[in-house]
């Protein structure tokens, strides 16, 4: 077995659906100023149109159900979905809609409107193209990995607790990571 990717397509241009069973949207936050806590969302979907020759014509759209958060702790997940953080009763959906796509070789830069708890901010995600493949079912797949860092307070996520030794329980800066496998639909 090799970890090398093989090119299955001559051109990436086309429409894609993100295969969420082989993809992940993850976040990383500092906890108690000493460690990192990771979480991901189990219920989300997304589509993309890639125009390899004219990347500005490319688009990406993602919808996340914040109630599907998983961090490895049911208590923490419950706190995150409460009004202290995600307030999923009032805000059951997060969205990302691209407003600009750029390409530099194998690197893609996707800028868009990210809406969390009714707050919309422009964010830019740097993606690296990981390759393409034809799977055993005849699907053409493309892979991308990307990340960005946001300030959670920009999205109304302001709850925190002071630590006795100084600092706070939850960092303001949150890293978002995206491991994407998308299936070509047209």
Mean pLDDT: 91
In what range is the share of β-strand residues? over 45%
Strand order of the largest sheet: 1-4-5-7-8-9-10-11
Principal-axis shape: elongated
N→C terminal distance: 30 Å
Q: How helix-rich are the residues, as a percent range?
A: under 10%
User: Which structural category fits the helices and strands?
Assistant: mainly beta
Figure out the total of helices.
1
| Biggest sheet record | 8 strands, antiparallel, barrel
Order of helices and strands: EEEEEEHEEEEE
Output the radius of gyration.
18 Å
Question: Would you identify the regions where 5 or more consecutive residues have pLDDT less than 50?
Answer: none
Report the count of strand segments.
Answer: 11
List keywords for this structure.
single chain, 186 residues, mainly beta, 1 helix, 11 strands, elongated
What does this structure look like?
- With 186 residues, this protein is mainly β.
- It contains one helix and eleven strands.
- The chain has one helix at 74-81; strands at residues 14-18, 24-31, 35-41, 44-50, 59-64, 69-70, 94-104, 107-116, 119-134, 140-151, 170-184.
- Strands 1-4-5-7-8-9-10-11 form an eight-stranded antiparallel barrel.
- The protein is elongated and about 60 Å long.
